[in-house]
Amino acid sequence: xxxxxxxxxxxxxxxxxxxxxxxxxxxxxxxxxxxxxxxxxxxxxxxxxxxxxxxxxxxxxxxxxxxxxxxxxxxxxxxxxxxxxxxxxxxxxxxxxxxxxxxxxxxxxxxxxxxxxxxxxxxxxxxxxxxxxxxxxxxxxxxxxxxxxxxxxxxxxxxxxxxxxxxxxxxxxxxxxxxxxxxxxxxxxxxxxxxxxxxxxxxxxxxxxxxxxxxxxxxxxxxxxxxxxxxxxxxxxxxxxxxxxxxxxxxxxxxxxxxxxxxxxxxxxxxxxxxxxxxxxxxxxxxxxxxxxxxxxxxxxxxxxxxxxxxxxxxxx
Length: 317
What we know:
Blueprint: H1 8-34, H2 51-58, H3 60-91, H4 98-110, H5 113-124, H6 129-136, H7 150-177, H8 182-190, H9 195-206, H10 208-223, H11 227-232, H12 246-254, H13 261-286, H14 288-316
Helix pairs in contact: 1-13, 3-7, 3-10, 3-12, 4-7, 5-7, 8-9, 10-13, 12-13
């Protein structure tokens, strides 16, 4: 067998490392550096310290964007964590034609987000199908401003996000449900547990790991929401820009020849820190037992060293 050269592993890994450095690490570091400047296109760059971050505290647009993202997280995380699990339980049954329903539920995932948002816009417009149905059944005598009211527009956008995400997370749960043994459900049923009890005591603990993963994915996606709000608001951020998202604000501030690149970079850094929060929480929860063991081991080693030092001191006396 021919022996490989010493540089062969580096030659194989080199292109991937170079790609990550050029298109991931350097842009990130450059964004952090620009966030401390007043960078603008075609203008000289000067260092401004933390002024961009101080400005965030008094910027009403950033307040609107942060509120939108937080509301997205509060609504989407519980809804998109539990509904796909219930949907997966429904389509996990071995009945004829269940494949048709699985395909139907997954279809919104395949559809383009832009196309889905445009269709949603037609549905909820002033003369859309939803308003026509509401007036036809006599629930209201005039169109409801779904796309021009701040909170209704936000609910429409959240509904679109939930509709598109159900099928994707359903597939994740379907894969996880295969690891939940039927014998556990049968044993719980023999003990007199009902469907709801078996769900909370058998199914949920069996998919706890995938559920945490789904919650993190939903949380980070909700913080970085863009397409749904951008299309439904026409890029304006809704009435008075109150439904703008953080990503939309970054685009708005950094675009054009008069774009405030330094300020948009500061918003990008804040967005990065916000997305780290759910990852850190899940990491601590998942590795909590290991962290406690490490802490206990360190405490035990310190106690042993203290006893050894005390014994050495007494022997010297």
